Amino acid sequence: MNFKRLLYPLYKLLLANNKKKSPKRKKQPKKIEKKTKSEVWLGQLDIGYVSRIKTNKRGREYAYIPKSIFSGEDRQNLECSAIIYLDKISAEQENSGLYQGYGKLKGTFRKRGEMLVLESFKSFKPKLKNIKTKVNLADATFSLRYLALNTENGVFQIDKKNTPFNFSPYINKITKNKSYREFLANQKITIKSKGRKVGYVRKYGNEWIENTYWEQYGEAENWDFSGCNVDEIEENFNQYKQDKRYEKLVKELKNMKSFTSYSNLKKRFRDAGSPVTTSELNDMFFHSGYDEDIFKVLQERACETYVDNLSFVFKIKDQKERYVWEVPNRALATYIFNDKLEYNRLFERLKNTPRMIIRQNKEIQQELGFKGFVIHTGFDSWSEKFKELLSE
Q1: Whose C-alpha in 253, 265, 271, 337 is 20 to 30 A from the C-alpha of 52?
Q2: Residue 333 carries which DSSP code?
Q3: Are 307 and 285 spatial neighbours (Cβ–Cβ below 8 Å)?
């Protein structure tokens, strides 16, 4: 008897019952993730202060703008925060003063959550106003190339060739004399100029306070010296005129084009019979375009200061040796180098290499020992980044 044939119908019956008991699994529909397109807005961003430079998770640096107002074709006066990636901004655009804030930025922006991200730069115009202020010569600084006056509206300066009287940096020594200050206080000057709004925030207790002020924008438009007795000023200045060796040295420094150390300059003035201090050298070479707070920090940290009539380099020696290059334009960043090159060779290269080329060319960075740069926004932000680069 063939048992397989007898059992086969039973086997088919059991198999059919099992198929009924185990229901078929329904195929789950595939989840389709919808990608939401971020909106691109064309318009103008009215910027307040730029708080600091930050770095995202991917290592991209950006300027953070906590307070701004956007206006476009279909959106008006929208309060928001914004960010500007540094690698989106060219040297020319940076030179507009964008990172100092307080102005109108035109371009395209991508909306990311509650924040706007600059997509493309069109233009930036800082906030300006006409300033008229009356001052006197008692508050003046007589540098090699400029006459500068510190006023409640900021520091204003005029090229020496545009003043109606000649002067020497030596006059700065005499202005500390009480009777001489009284004479200079009677010499009145009216300044008309454009002022640019700048500012920063500082935390006082538990509250953030915004401090704003105005600084000279471009060349001073008009200095009215009609309130000065020019003949009397020159007569007094000539009484304190130094000997020919001093005046010859001053003339040489005014046309100086290569970097020279303060140590060397002090020796030269000492040899000329007129010793000078660090403060007096600062008065000779300082330009109102420098951020005074940052300048003071750099000089206090430096073991040597170098100057070339156009910029300063500070040699800072902690655990490692660094050279810090600062130019008289707050829109331009602080550059930091190591001691890979002998300092004279480094200074020569700095004179002949455009700043943005240094930022963009990795090969040149390697050659120069470039460590990085610090954008001038608020002092606290600058200080934080500066310390970080020095410690690397």
Answers
A1: 337
A2: -
A3: yes
Q: How far apart are CA 215 and CA 153, in angstroms?
A: 7
Residue 66: count of CB within 10 angstroms of its CB: 14
Rounded CA separation 128/143 (Å): 27
Among residues 204, 114, 189, the alpha carbon closest in space to that of 156 is found at: 189
Domain coordinates of the chain in residue numbers?
Answer: 40-126, 129-241, 279-391
pTM (2 d.p.): 0.84
Count of C-beta atoms within a 10 Å radius of residue 147: 22
pLDDT band at 74 (very low <50, low <70, confident <90, very high): confident
pLDDT tens column, 83-129: 999 999 988 899 999 999 999 999 999 998 889 999 999 999 999 99
70: CB partners within 8 A, 6+ apart: 41, 43, 44, 45, 46, 77, 78, 80, 82, 109, 116
Question: Does residue 2 register a pLDDT over 50?
Answer: no
Q: C-alpha angle with apex 214: 209 to 215, nearest 5 degrees?
A: 130
Does domain 40-126 correspond to CATH entry 2.40.50? yes
- Assign 16 to helix, strand or coil: helix
Per-residue model confidence (pLDDT) at position 187: 95
Q: How far apart are CA 326 and CA 328, in angstroms?
A: 7
User: Considering only CA atoms, which of 177, 153, 147, 136 is closest in space to residue 283?
Assistant: 147
Amino acid identity at 92: E
